[in-house]
Specification:
Blueprint lengths: L1 E9 L3 H19 L2 E6 L4 H7 L5 H9 L2 E6 L14 H11 L4 E7 L12 H4 L4 E7 L9 E6 L2 E6 L5 H17 L3 E6 L5 H17 L4 E6 H10 L6 E4 L1 H15 L6 E5 L5 E5 L16 H13 L4 H16 L2 E2 L9 E2 L2 H11 L1
Parallel strand pairs: 1-2, 1-3, 3-12, 5-10, 8-9, 8-10, 13-14
Antiparallel strand pairs: 4-5, 4-11, 6-7, 11-12
Bound molecules: 3-isopropylmalic acid and manganese (II) ion.
3-isopropylmalic acid binds next to helix 4.
Length: 357
């Protein structure tokens, strides 16, 4: 079977980590008899340099014509002072919107062989941690009306958080379906003690779950409490569903609990099977071009693409197993280095994982 994959390498370490994932996908293709065809398109800072905009038309067209999309990372110091409309981040927000990717799944998992990497006390994480954050991705305050002005000689600015029932229901569906396949416990995070949009969120999530997933329990948690609970007792979480902004913040916190952000991937999907898969970490311009960046998060993102967009479950398992084996053999990139382990470069890590498949 032939799969057309659009690759948005982006900035900083983006091209190196995408190259690592492509190496592994090619090996999977050879072993399982698939033909993965990669077409690269610019996004973010490199697109600003090349085309003057962070999300060129050809990139949107290429992604919409592909079977799925792999993204490295965008951004860097070089573009930090540009006007907001031509910042690299706009490219990322833009492609999510253009592809209709309203659902972002960010699993924060503590790998067995890396449990020592968590900054939390051993007793809090020794039973294992896997928090699956389902973040609404194309609504809320990141896409709401905004503006700025001046009143009585003083500057002001505003943004709006707005959610419709339809937007909440479709993300509730994703979260409920996931929860029903796992522990049947869903935690919905909001700020319903203050925000009107959160009160609608809460009512809608409960109504949807009761009607379509009567077998799962939905528990509400206020976002400030959730921030605290993630570090106090991370094992209580399984699937967590929340809005765009809360999910952005809590997913970074949950990632940090695992102590190895270089190991975490995310998937963004809409109504069809075409998705966008990316590592959770950023473009790390300080280490770009040095071949020390950990490619595993991007390799895992590619694995999620095989599973969630192409239903290639066996191939997903093969990649995950290969990563586990390489870690068990003691190979580590700099970010996850531990005493007694063998330090390898980013490209060596990708080669080791590919070899293991
Ligand atoms: C993320 C990033 C983006 C977001 C930025 C770069 C726009 O922080 O993917 O979490 O907030 O969605
Ligand atoms: Mn973020």
């Amino acid at each position: 079977m032939k799969y057309n994959i659009a690759v948005l390498d982006g900035d900083g370490i983006g091209p190196e980590i995408c190259a690592g994932a492509i190496k592994v996908l090619n090996k999977v293709g050879k072993k399982f008899g698939h033909d993965f065809v990669f077409t690269h398109y610019p996004i973010g800072g490199c697109a600003i340099d090349k085309c003057g905009v962070p999300l060129p038309e050809e990139t949107v067209k290429g992604c919409l014509a592909s079977d799925s999309v792999l993204l490295g990372a965008v951004g860097g110091y070089k573009w930090d002072n540009l006007p907001v409309d031509i910042r690299p981040e706009k490219g990322l927000l833009g492609i999510r919107k253009a592809m209709g990717l309203y659902s972002n799944i960010r699993p924060a998992k503590l790998w067995k062989s890396l449990s020592g990497a968590s900054p939390l006390k051993d007793e809090l994480v020794k039973g294992g941690v896997e928090i699956i954050i389902v973040r609404e991705l194309t609504g809320g305050i990141y896409f709401g009306e905004r503006g700025k002005g001046e009143e009585k000689g003083e500057e002001y600015a505003w943004d709006t958080e707005k959610y419709s029932v339809h937007e909440i229901e479709r993300i509730a569906e994703i979260a409920c379906a996931l929860a029903s396949k796992r522990t049947k416990k869903l935690i919905s995070v909001d700020k319903a003690n203050v925000l009107e949009s959160s009160r609608l969120w809460r009512k809608t999530v409960h109504g949807y779950a009761a009607k379509h997933y009567p077998d799962i329990t939905v528990e509400d948690m206020l976002v400030d409490n959730a921030a605290m609970q993630i570090v106090k007792n991370p094992a209580q979480f399984d699937v967590l569903v929340t809005s765009n902004i809360f999910g952005d913040i809590l997913s970074d916190e949950a990632a940090q609990v695992t102590g190895s952000i270089g190991m975490l991937a995310s998937s963004s999907l809409g109504d069809g099977t075409r998705g966008l898969y990316e590592p959770i970490h950023g473009s790390a311009p300080d280490i770009a071009g040095k071949d020390i960046a950990n490619p595993i998060a991007t390799i895992l993102a590619a694995a999620m693409m095989l599973r969630d967009s192409f239903t290639l479950t066996e191939e997903y398992d093969a990649i995950e197993g290969a990563i586990q084996n390489v870690l068990d053999k003691g190979y580590r990139t700099a970010d996850i280095m531990q005493d007694g382990c063998v330090s390898v470069s980013g490209s060596e890590m990708a080669r080791l994982v590919a070899e293991e498949i």
